[in-house]
Amino acid sequence: MLIIRDLKMTFGGRTLFENASFQVNYGERVALVGANGTGKTTLFSIILKEREPDAGTIERDEWTMVGHLPQEGEALGDETVLEVATGRVEELPQIEKRLHELEKIGDVSSPEYLELHAKHDKLNDPEVETKAKKMLRGLGYKDADLNRPAKEMSGGWVMRARLARLLVMEPDLLLLDEPTNHLDLLSLLWLQNYLKNYSGALLLISHDRVFMDEIITEVQEISEKKLIAYTGNYTDFLRQREERYEQQLAAYKNQQKEISDLQAFADRFRSIPSKASQAQSKLKQIERLELIEKPMAPRKPFRFQIPPPPRGGQRAISLEGIHMAYGANKVYSGLDLTVERGERTVLVGPNGAGKSTLLKILAGVVEFQKGKRDLGHNAKIGYFSQHRGATLDPEKTVLEEVQACAPLMREDEIRGVLGSFMFRKDDIYKKTAVLSGGEKSRLNLIKFLVDPPNLLLMDEPTTHLDIHTVESLTLALERYEGTLIFISHDVHFIRHLATKVLHVNNGQITPYTGGYDYFLEKTNAMDNERAALTAG
User: Fold this and answer.
1) Beta-carbon neighbour count of residue 529 at 10 Å?
2) How far apart are CA 168 and CA 120, in angstroms?
3) pLDDT tens digits, residue range 90-125?
4) Contact 339/317 with Cβ under 8 angstroms?
5) Strand 508-512 vs strand 55-60: parallel, antiparallel, or unpaired?
6) Cβ atoms of 187 and 138 closer than 8 Å
7) Chain centroid to CA 313: how far?
8) Cβ neighbours, 10 Å, residue 129
9) CA gap 308, 76 in Å, rounded
10) Residues 147-174: tens digit of each pLDDT
11) Which of 215, 373, 481, 508 maximizes the CB count within 10 A of its CB?
12) What is the pTM of this model?
């Protein structure tokens, strides 16, 4: 289906790939992994023929339809959510125009024409609207939103509509670049189950290890400018990569010892006439060796510890009789909630249920219409918003932003912390306004590290972080001594941290005193009981 041979690509004066090769066969599910900046998204653009490599070839079967979900995208006009998902306003007219151009010049047997024709047939299917509605509902849309103009919605919701359109077209090869970034937990689980049964091939970039574990059957790692294949899911890849490194390191050390022994013999006996020929033979033996390069150790999560925050009271925070509405949209009516010191609580529930609003009420960043918010003794709140830039001063540099949080820290100490979070050299002098989503997330984490709160509220903290930084954050929060309330769609992150679940739905909060798997067990049992009662 897709074969990449001897690929070479330089970007910004740096070589990303050299003699890189791999292939994707029909029905395979492959994850593309590697550190930030190694060229994962660039490889996607080469496969999509948006960029030309310096050397090498990309071969695709002429009948293969390729679908791509980029990391970012916006609605282009006045089309509704449903029209975005069906492609009838935006994509279908463009396809028809290009097909007519190719027909005019008689180019009706080219791979481009065949692929466009297949997409045209999918979007012209009489059932396309029914399929699109099914996909949109699975991805968290309510029926009332389907006919809303897409441009009224956030970029994340537009990306869901574009993902729905991809799934409607059912490409033979689906390229997904961080597809879970814009999803809540329930829509992520829906997509995960859908892709498990997807008939086409899948090439995926993701930082969500559980998502990859559930779906993929092969990993291609970009490392040392090569593509290295591993069989199995992401957990299998981690184990195999460690084994591969240990084998390569042992081979390197054995060869270095051999070279050292041969050189020592040559140095010792080269001046002795009776041994000189033997010594020369040892030197030639060294020259004939095919040298093994010292392998690069697999990147590990960097370990940092959040300093002990000031001790708060037994009750961290409480809400009493909270009424909250946005205009006519009533979110909460008479909400009561008490959070005890040391609890680690995850908020779960469908999109629009009010999870982020609840965090904002707890953080004191939105005004509610009625009720009481009462902070516990000595409470110090840290709020990690979904909108990372909102908590940063756009005029300050990275270094200045951290200095403002920790005026007593020496600059060399701050530089050390920044370096651990991949802010190196001139990066620390960047204005926060120009930082990427991942950089803003990392900078906000540093601010909590140098000035820790005892009540930490985090809204999707893993979004835009690479998988190693997510693991580092998980390890740090496991040892955090304060109270944690968070929203996340990363199941690995939730499983390692949450000891309590609050299920938010229809303005009601249902507590589950146990981890995420306990919550799933209880809610599945309730769903089964409801189904049995309905059947009876």
Assistant:
1) 10
2) 12
3) 788 888 898 998 888 888 888 888 888 888 888 888
4) yes
5) unpaired
6) yes
7) 36
8) 16
9) 48
10) 998 888 877 888 899 999 999 999 999 9
11) 215
12) 0.82
Among 173-177, 221-225, 322-326, 386-390, whose mean pLDDT is lowest? Answer: 386-390
Per-residue HEC secondary structure of 150-215 comes to HHHCCHHHHHHHHHHHHHHHCCCEEEEECCCCCCCHHHHHHHHHHHHCCCCEEEEECCCHHHHHHH
Sign of CA dihedral 100, 105, 108, 113: negative
Q: In the numeric block, which tokens belong to residue 449?
A: 């590290």
- The amino acid sitting at 266 is A
Contact call for residues 213 and 235 (beta carbons, < 8 A): yes
Residue 258's SS3 state is helix
- Four-point Cα dihedral 160, 166, 172, 174, nearest 10: -30
Please provide the DSSP assignment of 337-375 as one string: EEEETT-EEEEE--TTSSHHHHHHHHHT-S--SEEEEEE
Q: Is 221 exposed, middle or buried (0-12, 13-18, 19+ CB in 10 A)?
A: buried
User: Among candidates 23, 17, 68, which has minimal Cα distance to 177?
Assistant: 68
